[in-house]
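User: I'm putting together notes for a lab meeting next week and I want to include a structural view of one of the chains we've been expressing. I don't have a solved structure, so I'd like a prediction I can at least talk through. The sequence is below, exactly as it appears in our construct file.
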Amino acid sequence: MLIVFSGLDGAGKSTQIELILDMLRTQGKAPVYLWVRGGYTPLFNVAKSLVRRLSGGRVVPPSGRSEARSKALQQPWKRRLWLLLALLDLIFVYGIQVRWWRLRQRPVVCDRYIWDTLVDFRLNFPQERVERWWLWLLLQWVTPTPDAAFLLLIPVDESLRRSKLKHEPFPDAPEVLATRLAQYEALAKQGHWQVLDGRLPITTLQQMIQAQIGSSLKAAARAD
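Assistant: Thanks for the context. Below is the predicted structure for the 224-residue chain, given as structure tokens.
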């Protein structure tokens, strides 16, 4: 199976993912956990570090939010190069890695998926309209459709409170979180996810998620 979790920081994705991974392991399976955000995969981070060293930091600024990074990405060629490489990296991750794991009958549990990256790109690079790029269309085409996808949503103030408790290193500002939440709600109308209230008790969410996964497994078995 391919199981996907999306949503705001602090919505409870990590907790539910751990519960799902434990459930799969108790069933004798060897699940793969995959955390992906466009431009921040392990492979992409290695590439950025290499370019950063070779250029002395002139082409790729240090990771994290900084004035140097913001200034660098204001330059159209750097911004578009960054997006180009990020999209190629995602095509490799979703189009090759994820499909390979599925061919080997390994369940894949994703912390964020292609739609989270779309929200990130819309927020961080609104001038580029990345979803109109042919490379984005290719990424959509090669990305597998999840067997079960969950969008955990919480209000902005609750996300801020939980991020503070978790000591989130780069929390979004309230206005950014509000925009991100609006983007998720708009995309949810397209039917990508089962939308869940992240304020519900952990066990309640666990039961709802496991019930949906069970239904997906039965549907897959009938299809076979």
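A couple of points you could mention at the meeting. The chain has a mean pLDDT of 88. The first strand starts at residue 2 and ends at 7.

User: Perfect, that's what I needed.
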